[in-house]
Amino acid sequence: MQLLVTGGAGFIGSNFVRHVLRTRSDASVRVLDKLTYAGSRENLAGVLDDPRLEFVEGDICDRATIEAAMEGIQAVAHLAAESHVDRSIISAEAAVETNFTGSFRVFEAARAAEVERVLHVSTDEVYGACFDEPFTEDDPLNPRNPYSATKAGADRLAHSYFVTYGLPVIIARPSNNYGPWQYPEKLIPFFTWRALHDEHLPVYGDGMQIRDWLHVEDHCRALMLLLENAPSGEAYNIHGGNERPNMETIRLIIDELGKPESLIRHVEDRPGHDIRYAMDASKIAAVGWKPQIEWERGIRETVRWFADNLDWMQRAIARSRDYFEQWYAGR
Ligand code: NAD
Ligand code: TYD
User: Fold this and answer.
1) In a 3-state reduction of DSSP, which class is residue 28?
2) Is residue 7 in contact with ligand 1, taking CB distance under 6 Å?
3) Which of 3, 32, 61, 310 could form a disulfide bond with 102, CB atoms 3.0-4.6 angstroms apart?
4) Is the pTM of this model over 0.90?
5) Is 88 a member of any domain?
6) To test ligand 1's pocket by mutation, which of 14, 15, 65, 79 has the most ligand atoms within 8 angstroms of CB?
7) So what's the pLDDT on residue 308?
8) What separation in Å is there between the alpha carbon of 217 and the centre of ligand 1?
9) Cβ neighbours of residue 243 closer than 8 Å, sequence gap 6 or more
10) Residue 77, H or E segment
């Protein structure tokens, strides 16, 4: 299989590329990545020299670039995105451009190239906050921040390409991922970095918002299963079965690092902060997937991985100092 992975130099993308090369000896992978602040060749350390991997630096929004990237490709895993909610609150522009218009370019180019499979990676955030029973794939989408709105737009555009043009699309809706190589703007790596430097941990509001944590390796197994086995036109929820209030996750990070709880500081909440994400994942369970990595062990190992890779974190943070200064000013 010749696979194109958009966003393959980011957090989930780089883990996915490694997973594919490790588990599918017949697969070769082309990565297309713009190398924004979130992406780096470094994230593909250990596989960049693999003859089955080709790395192309480029923008999915550029028509000629994405068309060229589709040449000789059988399957596409589309992960490229502006992935951070907080940044989309400062300005939605990059998210609209990449997540919606860029996805449009990917679907168009895949259609023109008559690609056999397109796996579109959406998110649980498209459903919006959950106040009742966990969402099933048939529930309406109700995104409430600019990031999730652009993802919901792309999710439905993907579906429309299946219905209208017969593009063989599968939609994955994963919950919050954690694991190695996550850019240190997200909760777990960011708080690990700050705690290690004895800096306060800015918890939005009361910290009782609930996220359902999914280890990236479990997620990669699910994505591969869907790419190879799911019927086109379907959407699948993927979660770790670990609904936790943020405070519980934060206390575990602190405990693993042996730091005091006095580092916790409750700060002004994020506008439009979704109180809880929760999904029903029985549909993917029926295809034969369930998460394997236990939450506490997974988080502790991940925190350790960041602590052991401080140089990598330092370089990642240095790529977007302005963002951290702007967003956390007064927080
Ligand atoms: P990330 O921010 O770590 O990586 C995104 C990658 O996309 C980076 O390498 C970046 O350089 C690249 N990119 C951005 N704009 C691009 C463009 N215009 N053209 C080409 N490449 C571009 O994100 P992630 O956490 O790995 O997320 C991957 C996908 O999974 C995204 O679609 C995201 O919405 C989705 N998702 C993530 C999570 C999570 O918890 N991280 C949860 C659910 C869904
Ligand atoms: P994050 O990792 O940014 O993912 P998402 O916003 O996509 O869920 O945040 C996870 C949770 O942690 C979310 O409820 C927001 C909260 N959070 C904080 O309280 N403080 C922070 O500095 C960050 C980055 C996140």
Assistant:
1) strand
2) yes
3) 61
4) yes
5) yes
6) 79
7) 98
8) 16
9) 210, 211, 212, 276, 278
10) strand 75-78
Count structural domains, the chain: 1
| Ligand 2 touching residue 177 (CB < 6 A) | no
3-state secondary structure 309-327: CHHHHHHHHHCCHHHHHHH
Q: Tell which atom from ligand 1 comes closest to the C-alpha of 37.
A: 11
In a domain, 233, yes or no: yes
The answer to whether 124 is a known catalytic residue is yes
Q: Is residue 319 part of a domain?
A: no
Other C-beta atoms closer than 10 Å to the C-beta of 180 total 20
Nearest CA to ligand 1 atom 1: 10
Residue range of the domain that includes 146: 2-178+214-238
pLDDT in tens, 223-246: 999 999 999 999 999 999 999 999
Catalytic pick among 33, 37, 127, 147? 147
Quote the longest CA-to-CA distance of the chain: 57
Q: Is 105 helix (H, G, I), strand (E, B) or coil?
A: helix
Ligand positioned closest to the Cα atom of 105: 1
pLDDT at 73: 98
Residue minimizing CA distance to atom 10 of ligand 2: 187
- Per-residue pLDDT of 307-323, as tens digits, reads 999 999 999 999 999 99
Domain containing residue 219: CATH number: 3.40.50.720
Q: Is residue 183 part of a domain?
A: no
- Ranges of H-type helices in 177-281: 187-196, 216-229, 246-257
Decide: 217 in ligand 1 pocket, CB within 6 A.
no
